[in-house]
Amino acid sequence: MNFRFLYTVFTFFLLVLLSCRKDKADANYGNYPTDIGKIIVTKCTNGACHNTTNAEACNGLDLSTWENLFTKGSRNGSPVIPFSSKFSSLCYFINTYPELGFMNTPTMPLYQSPLSKEEVIKIKQWIDNGAPDIHGNIYGTNISEKIYVVNQGCDVVTVLDAKTQLPIRMIEVGAQPNVIETPHFINFSPDGKYWYVVFINSPYLEKYDAQTDKLIARCNLNNQLDWNRIIITKDGKKGFCVAWTSNGKIISVDLDKMTVIHAMYGLYFPHGTALSKNDDTLYVAAQTGNFFMKIDTALSSQISIPIDNSGTINYSSSLDPHDIFVSNDGTKLYFTCQTSNEIREFDLNTNTCTQIIPVGAFPQAMAYSTTWNTLYVSCELDNNSNSLGSIVAINLNNYSTQKKYVGYQPHGIALDEKHNVLYVPSRNLIGNGIPPHHSSVCNGKNGFLTVLSVPDMSIKKQRIELSVDTYFAKVRP
């Protein structure tokens, strides 16, 4: 008898049997890595807790599988952010050890013994390594349809999956780790390959790869601060950064080399900014007063034009235009007038205001739908009994309006026409506001995001909790 052959066959079948048993055991842990799955599945999804059957009673969070964790999230967003345990609220609720960071109540697992220190550390390390599944896959790696939200109070840009409307990354931005640099505005190259962010409390323009969200370069904007806009030409080669002060500034930047080209100082509270259709003129709103400025893109000259048909420039607070939108044909400008609570339509051919459209209190940012020829406006201080702030939709065919009270201090809205949704960031700063679901790693109360379906403006998702001062959203092209 060939004992060597029999031994080989026996060994082969034994390995197959053990492999099948291992696969079966691994499957019992919801596609998590085995050591993580043993903790989550046996301690977090048992009984009436975070499983598929009982998720609705547990804040909508189903932890039974790795896929459910990332594709369903909870009613407040994403409890686990890959590569960032400090922004993952799951860690706050399982932690009972002060030396390991934030602790939120109620402690999870509910009505059971807390996780051991070793178990908490293991989960935090797993998240900081990307929170992979059992095969090493990291959620969000190949997602290209993304939404970006600037959080002013925490120097972080939140990245969301456009399909699920859930956060998938928290990108820490800025050059000084121990200083709040206040990221204010984000914009994309027209091809969607890069995103750029400017800061109130930093002299840098930062450039990131939009697929990997990794920092590529920084440009020092002449050691100046107070940057509130970065506007980009249609070829993606030049950016214009605007600083909002009484002695305001515009600096043009070569976005390939990330170097300063030209600078213009001495502008009066420049804020909302847009480029003309052929990219040869900047339109810049003077946020205090009744006018805007036309500036050539060589930054060599500028003229001021009133938007109230008075023929006179007024430097004191009156209309106070905040934001600008240029019509698709390049012939009209639309201004949010934050003190007079209206939208003004301005005809560039005749240099006259042609429409005045009342909206809610303190109108701020705009987003335009080409599909519906509708202009959406955030009104940050529009008060009613249930919220502070509204979104007003203006049909530009007949100037009719529709209002939706939503969020708390909505600001820099973004329209995703591919998925027919409007993203509404809520700053949630003043008054009592909306109580946050969890703590923040920065000082202050977390803001949140609401997602509206368009054109009906019904609420698709609300209170997707992000970080402090959820300020401005942008859709990746």
Structure description:
The protein is mainly beta. It folds into two domains: 31-128, no CATH class; 146-475, YVTN repeat-like/Quinoprotein amine dehydrogenase (Methylamine Dehydrogenase, Chain H, 7 Propeller), CATH 2.130.10. It has five helices and 28 strands. Strands 3-2-1-28 form a four-stranded antiparallel beta sheet. It has a four-stranded antiparallel beta sheet with strand order 4-5-6-7, with no helix packed on it. β5 and β6 (204-209) form a beta hairpin. The protein is globular, with a radius of gyration of 26 Å. It starts with a helix and ends with a strand.
How is this structure best summarized?
By secondary structure, the protein is mainly beta.
